[in-house]
Amino acid sequence: MKNKQKVFIVIGILVIIGVSFGVGLFIGQKNVPKNDLAINKVESQTFYANIESIKQYNDGSFHLNVTGLEVNDINYRGNFTFKVDDSMDMTWRGEKVKVSDLKEGNNISITFTDETIMSISPTPLREVIKIQILDDER
Predict the structure, then answer these.
(1) Does the model's pTM come out above 0.70?
(2) 65 and 15 together in one domain
(3) What is the pLDDT of residue 1?
(4) What is the extent of the structural domain holding 49?
């Protein structure tokens, strides 16, 4: 009888260890950060620029060519180009603005989520998510 009790105790301890390991593994996998594109896109970068030109193409799209300001990190002082439309988040003093409110010479902040900055000039930004006009007047 004593040997049977020891066997049951050992089996019980092994079952408890196995269940604890399984629960810990399950909880750990649910809480680990994923390294997929959805999480990387949440991280964004903002820099300041001056609008050099606004071009409208035949398809009705607008493209901005901007030059980064000296207050930026050295990587964001060059020339950049990107597409804009009225569905983007564009503001001036907290108010929503349209593409037609953007003017050459405006200082703006640009928030984007591109994963890499190419070493070509002007650098194309594909995933601009927010533009703010920084000038005192529109």
Answers:
(1) no
(2) no
(3) 60
(4) 39-133
